Amino acid sequence: MECWLPLTGRFVGDMRSHEVWDALSGVLGTEWLDREGNLYRPVCAALDIQGDHYPECLEYVRAHRFKGRLHAVCGYGGVKASGGRSFGILRNTYVDKTTGVTVQNVDTDVGKSQLASMLARKEPGPGFVHLPCGVNGEVAGGWDIEAVAELTAEYRREQNVRGYTAGSRSGGSRLPGTHSRR
After folding, report:
1. What is the pTM of this model?
2. Do the domain assignments include residue 43?
3. N or C: lower Cβ tally within 10 Å for the chain?
4. Nearest Cα to 55, choosing from 104, 107, 111, 16?
5. Could you tell me the residue range of the domain that residue 63 belongs to?
6. Using one digit for the tens of pLDDT, what is the confidence trace for 99-133?
């Protein structure tokens, strides 16, 4: 249950061209070596298919499933399970009729809560998130201050809704110019 985030970055370009998709294929095919020389490859990847380029995203997943390791996902939040039961981060699936790609709905509220809990851990072990850095603490894998700020931009706050206290999330950094692991 420990998590290593070796790389972060953005692809900028026209999603109707091959350049962006070729760059993504390059990352999905990347192999990493640890200090002991052990080789690691991505085990599983998810592509958020929502937005203006839904057809292009689905077609990419259909054509480049990387032997079952690339999955199409769609954020699904704000809806509570009936009876108050929790089913984890994964919700229902559906098959896109045009491409035949199975799309997994992901509960964004549960996912963000799990990520916040993992980022709050201070000691390595189950649930701890490792961010890469060089031997002298320099930036590695694209994880600079801005990338970490984006990862930790949302925070939980309580609010009163119809007389009940409920947790919610807010966007933006906790304080301008400050960053935390929460």
Report:
1. 0.71
2. yes
3. N
4. 16
5. 3-78+86-143
6. 999 999 988 888 888 888 888 899 999 989 888 87
